[in-house]
Specification:
272 residues
């Protein structure tokens, strides 16, 4: 397994996203993923599955210290006292003494960013999390966050796949020594029928999804594909035995545009 390193964090290149996974299915998928070699699991308070993620981790039999576990604080808990209480609630549900990475899930303009970041840094200083970061932050917000945070941030988790051009965010992450973690890395399955990805995959005996994930790994991006199917779990992690050429990488980059975004909400920031 490759890692993306940023400000002391070693984030495994491929992880499991758990959005929309619930109940026994969630616990079983997490357990199976870890048994297949996944070491990076991503959850969030708003997913309402932290309890099941914790169950899956324990059932896997793999030492907690060998895993990288992320959760995220929802926007209505960004006031300092709320954030600390909320982070502790997540740990109770997960039945863990700390997470590896605690993220602000989306920007919230109702609470001063410096106050929220102060509380996030404090959560790290208290030992509730080993690392801290942000999610769905634009370049401008990311730069404000880096400047205002008393502790180093390690990532910006954003939507990123071949159809969404994230060049400016990627470059800003690199300049600020942050990792980019990609959610919806296979564009919610839309890439399966893509002629370019199929053709490149055929040359390597790989699926379009594997080509997609390899393209991200070669950019030093950590990708967290979500699946509820066991057979997809092994497909998604099996991307370390081939290399895309510069020409193939470039061809995939050309699929992207600013219009390729799949996740957008009324409360979202003004995107780059």
């Amino acid at each position: 397994m490759d890692f993306v390193e940023a400000n002391g964090a070693k984030i495994p290149s491929i992880g499991l996203g758990t959005w929309e996974l619930r109940g026994r299915t969630c616990a079983r998928i997490v357990e199976q993923a870890i048994k297949l070699g996944y070491r990076h699991i991503d959850t969030a308070q708003i997913y309402e599955n932290e309890r099941e993620v914790g169950e899956g981790v324990r059932a896997s039999g793999v030492k907690r210290s060998d895993l990288f576990l992320t959760t995220k604080v929802w926007t209505n808990h960004f006031a300092p006292n709320d954030l600390e209480r909320s982070a502790k609630e997540s740990l109770v549900k997960l039945r863990m003494s700390e997470v590896d990475l605690l993220l602000l899930h989306w920007p919230n303009s109702q609470v001063p960013l410096a106050e929220t970041l102060g509380a996030l840094a404090h959560a790290k200083q208290m030992g509730l999390t080993r690392h801290i970061g942000v999610s769905n932050f634009t370049v401008a917000l990311m730069e404000q966050a880096v400047a205002a945070c008393p502790e180093p941030l390690v990532c910006d988790q954003v939507e990123y796949h071949p159809y969404l051009d994230q060049t400016s965010v990627r470059e800003a992450c690199a300049q600020n020594h942050l990792a980019l973690v990609a959610y919806s890395p296979i564009a919610k399955g839309a890439i399966k029928k893509d002629d370019t990805l199929r053709r490149i995959g055929w040359a390597h005996r790989k699926s379009p999804a594997q080509v997609c994930l390899r393209w991200l790994v070669q950019q030093k991006v950590s990708a967290i594909p979500r699946t509820s199917r066991i057979e997809r779990l092994s497909e998604n992690i099996n991307v370390f035995d081939f290399v895309l050429s510069d020409e193939e990488m470039e061809e995939i980059f050309r699929l992207g545009s600013a219009k390729g975004r799949l996740t957008d909400f009324g409360f979202a920031p003004k995107w780059d």
